[in-house]
Design a protein that fits this description.
The complex is a heterodimer of chains A (about 525) and B (about 575). Chain A is mostly beta strands and about 525 residues long. Chain A contains 4 helices and 20 strands. Chain B has about 575 residues and is of the alpha+beta class. Chain B has a domain of about 160 residues. Chain B contains 15 helices and 26 strands. In chain B, the strands form 8 sheets. In chain B, strands 2, 9, 10, 13 and 18 form a 5-stranded antiparallel beta sheet that branches. A 5-stranded antiparallel beta sheet of chain B has the order 12-11-19-20-23, with no helix packed on it. In chain B, strands 1-26-25-24 form a 4-stranded antiparallel beta sheet, with no helix packed on it. In chain B, a hairpin with a 2-residue loop joins β7 and β8. The longest helix of chain B is centred in the first third of the chain and has 14 residues. The chains are: A mainly beta (about 525), B alpha+beta (about 575). At the A-B interface, β4, β5, β6, β7 and β8 of A face α1, β2 and α15 of B.
Chain lengths: ~525, ~575
Amino acid sequence: MRFRAGPLALGLGLGLGRGLGLGFGRGLGRGLGLAVAGAVSGALLLAAPGSAWASGLDVPQIGTTFSSPTTNDAAALYWNPAMLGFANKGEVMITLGVVGGHVGYQRDRLGAYQFEDSLEFAEPIDPAAIDPNKPGAYPRVTSPIFSPNAGLFVSAPVIKDRLTLGFGAYVPYAAPLSFPADGDQRFALQDAFIAVARISAGLGVKLHERVSLGASATYVLGIVSLTRVQDFAAVEIFSEALANPPINQPNDFGETAPSTVRELSVLARPFALTDGYSHNATFNVALAANPIDPLWLGLTYDHGSRLNVNGQFQLDMNDEFFTQDLAGQGLAFPPLVAGDAKLSFRLPKRIMLGIAYDISKRLRVDGNFAYVFWSDLDAFVITLDSPDLAQPEIGLPRRTEVALRRDWKGTVHAELSVRATVDKRERVRVSGTLGYHSPASPDATIDVASPDGHRLIGALGVAVAINERIGLMADGEVQGILPRTVTTSDFDLGNGTYDLVLGGGHLHLIVKFGNGGKVLKGKG
Amino acid sequence: MLQITNTLSAIVVGSMLLLGGCIEPLTIEDDPPQAEIAVSETRRIELRYLRFDVEGFEQVLTLDDLRAMPQATLDGVWLLDLELTPLVQNALTQLKQLPPDQVSQLPQAAQNMRTLLNITPDNVDLSGTSLEELIGLSSSVGLPPAKALSDIFEIGVTENFISIEANTQAVVQGLIASHPATQLRDGPVDAAHPDGLWAVAPNSLPITLGDVVSNFDDLAMRFGPTMTEFGEHPGFIEQATGLSVIEEEFAMTVKVNLNPLPYKGADLTDVSGASVNSIASQIESVFPVDDPDWMQVEGLVASPSISSMTVVMVENDQFIASGTSQDPLPTGNSPAWSLPPWEFERVVAEMTMLSAADISNHCTNYELGTGVQAFSACIDDNHWVEFETFNNVGNPPPPSYAWDVVLELAQVRLHDGGLQEGDADIAFTLSDVPLGVAAADIVEEIRTNMAADPVALQDLAENLTANTFGFADFYYWKPKPGGSAQWEGDWLFFVTADDIPVDDSGPARPYAYANPGFFADAALTNKLSSTANVDGDDTHEKVRIAAGDVLFVEDDVGRVYRIDVAAKPSANRLALDVTRVN
């Protein structure tokens, strides 16, 4: 089985993700990474320009390591439903596996900072308040990643050589992240749990002996929880409340706050987004062709979708500054603010192109290329709603919507697989893959919640046919982003060095059934 | 349905996880109250010094905000001394011009007072006065008496003997200015006012924020009878309702420059954290009075008035004789000048003297039809009036000052209608009497006054911030970044009585420290702290500390504690190990 690189995107199995980029699962891109980032940034209205999503834990594997836009297995429902049209028999694919690895980050603070127990809110900061020891390298933090994985695909030819239906239920990604609560990444992420479940149905219609069209529709369930420390210095509405009457304090807080006013202990408020669920749908359409016997072409368009995560949030405001010291001036949060959170953003469209060539009866070379329109994702829109948030005397409403700008760019995926049948009885096949995914997140917005970068992928798989109808597959994949050192992070939020390594192993049971569907009259 | 779907989906996903990834919602544990620290027990406390220096913060005070404040605080905020002359003039004018149908509703004395306000040479009734002789003299020369009177007083025959302005001035200066409530008001204690009493502007009513909020509901009490050096002042307002200078939409907005955060201190009893309001230490610089917009007031009544007001003025129980001698100058010898300034007779004398100031030194000769001089009326620079008759025309009125003439006339006329001496105390109720001052003028005066004495707003500002919490025995202080180098470092300030909030029921706790301050020994014999001036503070016992220092303090119940200053956790935090000694 193979996973696919890409950020973790809430891509939640949409095959889109670029989110946490644990990056398993082809095609799913940066899905979960998004989730995290989104949730993170979003979650807090207040949230800092969310970095949370960019790449990182990309979506896990879909299907097996043999699966691709030019493979006519049951997982073609995801990769290229048109390939279902080339199915000769019905197939049930059951997958179990695990994914493990780690995300690492070593922060370098390059900007100037106040002493963290100060509260000067506008530059120039008195030199006496600047902490001379703050800039520099900080201890590396890591989060282990370990997640089970499972999936079920069924393809069922209904009309022989004409129509094949497909069904899939799978969890392309589910993984917890856990960084040190007091680590230097805490303003981006402490803990996250992102899981995605997908239920898809589709069909492949063979229009011609060598051409097939296909499409599928997918329901995507996402589950998101996370914790982080919210830096109120980066919260635009907090800045505005401070700047507007009655407080009238011009300040440098907000999304573009310089490092000199960030990470002040009194404004560092623990935040959690819990029980965040998203219910979304997407579709894909695909074309598959076999123009000459050894050549297979597959082209898939995935529409992406608007993603809405609804959950609960809690914000720890238990500091006398927020709860009592300025109550007379209208600032009096309860120690724990809780309410509804909604995180919205657009998951990107994606175009996948697969080209496979059978060099011989035993050897195939399979190229898989994709362009993911991460540039579609213009912002994370976060809404927090709680009566506890309302501070009317200083202009803070109970419901707040903020847009967190992302400057992601489209990504290119390129993978090359070699698949071979290695025994004379043609019962054993092997597959090897090398690949590369370009990063979506620019240096300006990257952070530990979206550990994105140039991603290299390697996968191996073996398939053994027990008999004509039953086969077993085992595969493993390793991927990682090249250690990425960032020095131009906006506001010094994410400068430092990122690394990510993921590995996974999966077992698949393949059961063939049927004889390829009902034979149409005249088709003999 | 959605919830069910979520739940089922979560089960599906969760069941696939061998290692759960659940993230629990944040919760906050309430800190249970600590027990008192035991003898020999040591507890650590960390104190934070946080500044949140704001400039131009707009503090808005609505009527509801004000009503929620302790009355003592509101009464302590003096806004302005309201000049009463316009109000009195409006009241007298209204009485003077009262329609006849309303006049009949007035008590006889008030009716007579109204008559006096309207008296002119033309309508004056001289009967029963020494001027009665003038009637005969005038007749002898074929003149109406009004002509002679108008000549003497240099007024038209239909002009009032005493202008409303002079009436007003005399009433204000005599009746009102003599009342103690218009002389002194409560204010902050300072070197110039050790008794906390401040002079009120002449002829003015001191107005506090409490008056504004309460719509002056104690006006009659404040300006009612009270003792003075001249005896009991009868007061001059018997009843007043509906004096309102503000509307429900009232809002006072004050810009402030300050650090509104409280100081963080320790309650030694259980070594818990506490907060001490910091306003007092910065009150001198809180208000940016150079900013013309530093204070704005909205919701003032455009033309404030009193809905109903009963003004009183008592007469002397005796008929007060007019003077018979020019001496002593300049008043003559009428006993009226020895009367308390609020009595009717004295007020009449005063107002006539004021009015006579414009009368020039002159003589008027009156001749018979034959051309023979019949009598003359002269008034000199001192306003001494002399009538002289010739050729046996008749008896002239005795010489006297102009005010003596009017005094006699006023007393006689005041008792018209059969009133006996002592029964003609005047009381008249008027409606909708304008205060005579525009809202904008009030605002300007308030702004000016507050700018001159911001300390007067200290209680108010402390109530607005109201962020003293707990019972701190001392608190942590640092100089502002960029401040004077001589005060750099970490300081502990021992609380003073002023650090204890006060409401209408009194201080939140008694200030019962027998030995305030910080000491070097448990016996409290060697004091380390002092009240020496540090950044403008010369009231608190204070000491500069550093890691390793050992201090001893006594709380307000006589327990002694040892404080070991630990290493600083961060630049603006202190760590103290507190051990109870006894």
